[in-house]
Amino acid sequence: MELNPSEAHKRVALHTLGCRLNFSETGSIAQGFVDRGYEIVELGQPADLVFLNTCTVTDGADSSCRNLIRKARASAPDAKIVVAGCYAQMEAEKIKKMEGVDLILGTSEKYRVFDHLDALAVETDEDVMVRIDKSSEFWGAATTLADSHTRAFLKIQDGCNYICSFCIIPFARGRSRTQPIKDVIAEANKLVSSGFKEVVLTGVNVGEYEASSGEKLSDLCQQLVEIDGLKRLRLSSVEPNTINEELLKVLKNSGKYLDHFHIPLQSGSDSILKNMRRKYDVAKYKEVISMVTSYFPKTAIGADIIAGFPGESEEQFLETFNLLRELPITHFHVFPFSKRQNTTAAKLPDQVSSVDKKRRVRDLIMLGEAKLDAFAHELAGSKTEVLFESQKEGWWEGYTPQFIKVRARSNENLSNQIKHVSLMSWNGSVLDGIIL
């Protein structure tokens, strides 16, 4: 690609908030900057341009986005600041009022960032350029070497047709749409050829792949695991009502799918699940977890949980707490209920107080820490394979198939290397291991 002289040797800092889907998208955009001659630097270092890919799933995410914008301006006062993604899509007017922002791009327009930067370089009457048009087009994305990740996040789906009463994402990202299997396989081959050993399939609602594309997720996974050089496969969050035995059989028989699932729960109360407009009840969720563990008995399972949904009584909260104590859930992702613009739940009566929400969040987090601690202690004394990612304070760090962090000493460069490791002990945050 012929470089624009004004682009060559410039520095860009990219930062991502939110889900793995966002990370896959930032990866593709990072590669676009590299192709145009930019040097990628860390946020906080001097830069000519800062690109922030944002999230708006909760009030906390919104607050993090605003703080990130302030940090970007403070660390690079002369840089062009681009705020893109879900928060930009939903709150462009708020962002526009913040000092130092030059370009605001919604969830579709961020893929046209280079066109908008060219337009920004030309005289314009706009103090801040805002482009937030939504599109039904599918924009493919995947981690690239430019984004410095060891695991590759590969986007196969975007948007959502579910209208859960608490969720703003369908408003931010639009209707569900997918990438055809043949295109996913082509992209996965590129990732493996460039050196990635592990691929994580991402999307807003990955389990709806067949409903949106007419092609089965199980068929996609079957073709993926047949790629020579692909060693490990994960799925990002999968709705419980979309998991079936056909998919689990493919994953189990592959020998490449890891012992790790993320299956959102949100609540352990049937009445709250109904008010959330979820597509399952507690009995169905328990059935799915039982089915998953029958195929993957050593698996770790993550779950999203919302504490303090409107009308949630103490008894209903205890239903959630006790269900999570009963089920083999190991990775808790706990959020206080957050009023989201244009959602039904934001207008419901009987909003739970902030004090009660904070207490319930704390209780769930403590339960989650105890369960993860017990699970990790059980892994100590076993042997497993670890994909090492980076070195920190003399230790190489990576993750077990169950997504538990491991550290080990080695004089060898272990980055992006899969090693057989004896897991010795759990110190509360990481498993110490010895490379075999």
Describe the structure.
By secondary structure, the protein is α/β, with parallel strands linked by helices. The protein has three domains: 11-131, Methylthiotransferase, N-terminal domain (Rossmann fold, 3-Layer(aba) Sandwich), CATH 3.40.50; 145-378, tm_1862 like domain (pyruvate-formate lyase- activating enzyme), CATH 3.80.30; 383-435, OB fold (Dihydrolipoamide Acetyltransferase, E2P). It has 14 helices and 19 strands. Strands 2-1-3-4-5-6 form a six-stranded parallel β-sheet, sandwiched between helices. β16 and β17 (405-408) form a beta hairpin. It is globular. The termini are far apart.
- The structural domain count equals 3
Q: Unreliable stretches, pLDDT < 50, 5 or more residues?
A: none
CATH topology of the largest domain: pyruvate-formate lyase- activating enzyme
Beta-strand residue fraction? 15-25%
Walk across the major sheet and give the strand order: 2-1-3-4-5-6
Task: Report Rg.
Answer: 22 Å
Percent helix range: 25-40%
The total of helices stands at 14
Alpha-beta classification: alpha/beta
Largest sheet: 6 strands, parallel
CATH architecture of the largest domain: Alpha-Beta Horseshoe
N→C terminal distance: 45 Å
List the helices and strands and how they pair.
Blueprint: E1 11-16, H1 20-35, E2 39-41, E3 49-54, H2 59-75, E4 80-85, H3 86-90, H4 92-96, E5 103-105, H5 113-121, E6 129-131, E7 151-155, E8 157-158, H6 169-173, E9 177-178, H7 181-193, E10 198-202, H8 209-213, H9 217-225, E11 232-235, H10 245-254, E12 260-262, H11 270-276, H12 282-295, E13 300-307, H13 314-326, E14 331-336, H14 354-379, E15 383-392, E16 395-399, E17 405-408, E18 418-426, E19 431-435
Parallel strand pairs: 1-2, 1-3, 3-4, 4-5, 5-6, 7-10, 10-11, 12-13, 13-14, 17-19
Antiparallel strand pairs: 8-9, 15-16, 15-18, 16-17, 18-19
